[in-house]
Predict the structure of Protein AKTIP homolog.
Amino acid sequence: MLNVTHQLKKKLFLTDLDERESPTSTRKVLNNQDVSSSSASTSEPQSKGHKSLPSLPSPEEEESMNLSIARKRSPSNSTPLPAKAYGPYFLEYTLMAEYNQLRSKRLPGVYVLPAAKSPLVWYGVIFIRMGSYQDGAFKFTMTVPDNYPDGECPKLVFKPPIFHPVVNIETGELDVKRAFPKWRRSVNHLWQVLLYTRRIFYKIDTRDPLNPEAANLYENDKETFKQKVNECLRTCHNELHIPVDDDPHCIHFVELEPQKIDEVKETILESQSKPGKLPTANAHKSGLSWMKKGSSDIFTIEQS
């Protein structure tokens, strides 16, 4: 990795975005300074304080630059790898932007955390509150391609596998390409994959299933389908405490001791007495809940 400062990495990232995403007729540079249209005469003087972005290198020039940088990074007796010079920085900032965008969406019942060892792996769990999969808690792993956002769509795998028409019962992989047959840069986002993942439990699609048995039972034998789903729910619930990986950020559950439960309830009750400090306007989206003192009955505060 190049030893550059945060500001330089930010500049590289923004410059790459401008070159790739902006129309050729109009471009922007750092500090929100506009530059002249590419259709303007090259002899026209630039206004003070404005800079022109360098043109994109040709494929041959880019390969030459990448090889040059790779040689400097590699020992003299080894063959350099022709990796893109800006790739790690562009990927890092893209994934940071995707995660911040996901946080702003606040998808109900969906919790995700990037792995500590690799930003390309995200661990998650989804809670289902209604429908055939009500009371389900399903852990999953989403893997992002290393050439994101120019490659294939992300891969999402349920661990353990779930009984569902669009999920492979052997591997647990969700048929993401059903919703994203071609991943489109700057159009498709990771939060949309998670939204689709949540939606499959409420709107079940039986066309071209990965699990023909589940699709057939859903269409022709709802009672047996529900039995199979209940077995799946029990299996997933029993394995909530088992980490799917050795990564420190891998999501798993632990059973709270009675003392800990009382401490959590007391904290919630204390917070309830200060509603002005809580985002109660969107309590159903913020994950907050309250219980009456001395009982486990859940209630919410009515908004005026």
Residues 87-105 form the longest helix (19 residues). Strands lie at 28-29, 33-34, 110-114, 121-128, 136-143, 155-158, 290-291, 298-299. The radius of gyration is 25 Å. The chain is about 35% helix and 10% strand.
